[in-house]
Amino acid sequence: MQMLNRYFAPFALLLILSAVYFSEPEPRAYKLSLAVLTASIIVNWWLTKNMYRFYRWAWQTRALQVWLNLIWAIPLFHFLMPFWGPMWLLFVMAPATAAMYWDRWKTLGMALASAGTMLAMYRWHGVEGVALSMALVHAAFIVVFSLFVHGLVETALRLRDAGLPRV
User: Fold this and answer.
1) 54: which residues sit within 8 A by CB, 6+ positions away?
2) Where do the domains of the chain lie?
3) What pLDDT is stored for residue 127 in this prediction?
4) I need a labelling partner for 19 at 20 to 30 A (CA). Which of 27, 140, 154, 160 fits?
5) Residue 98 neighbours by CB under 8 Å, 6+ apart
6) What are phi and psi of 19, to 5 degrees?
7) How far is it between the farthest Cα atoms of the chain?
8) For residues 32 and 60, what is the distance between their CA atoms, to the nearest angstrom?
9) Which letter does DSSP use for residue 88 in this model?
10) How far, CA to CA in Å, does 167 sit from each of 59, 90, 163, 164?
11) Is the CB of residue 114 less than 8 Å from the CB of residue 91?
């Protein structure tokens, strides 16, 4: 969980704050986006801080954090996507988190759910034509990247378990 908080959380924060600052969204989208961002930071911080306190529920806590990453992405994408194109990258976080803790099939399922949600949001916003084709490539990236991260995690665990001498 610390790796996610060290790398993905600051990136998501940069992405969202850049969208708010540079794109100048409407005031309602601005306020709601900052509210969702604040709630996500507080909840993720609390879950990470208390992960070992709830050791017996570690799997459920991790699953909750994976699903919450997807849930936070939906309103942020909805409010900021019309003003800031890279918002689709928020949909990478949930499957990347799943890739670190879940097996390949569950990771694939989360990646498909995340990519499908993103595509549904694009369609809801009326995206068509070439832009929808780009969205399909974004969706494919979400799936491929998630499986790649899962493969890296499995490889690292196999090397650790092999008992090879450390370099």
Assistant:
1) 61
2) 2-161
3) 84
4) 140
5) 66, 106, 107, 110, 111, 146
6) -60, -45
7) 57
8) 28
9) G
10) 32, 36, 12, 9
11) yes
**Which amino acid is located at 79 in the chain?**
F
- Residue at token pair 């709830």: 54
Q: What is the pLDDT of residue 26?
A: 81
Q: Which residues of the chain are under the pLDDT cut of 50?
A: none
pLDDT of residue 94: 92
Give how far Cα 165 sits from Cα of 78, 151, 152, 159, 161, Å. Answer: 49, 22, 19, 10, 11
- Spell out the alpha helix ranges (H) of the chain: 2-3, 9-23, 27-49, 58-80, 93-101, 104-124, 129-161
Closest C-alpha among 70, 75, 78 to residue 109: 70
Question: What is the pLDDT at residue 96?
Answer: 92
pLDDT score at 24: 78
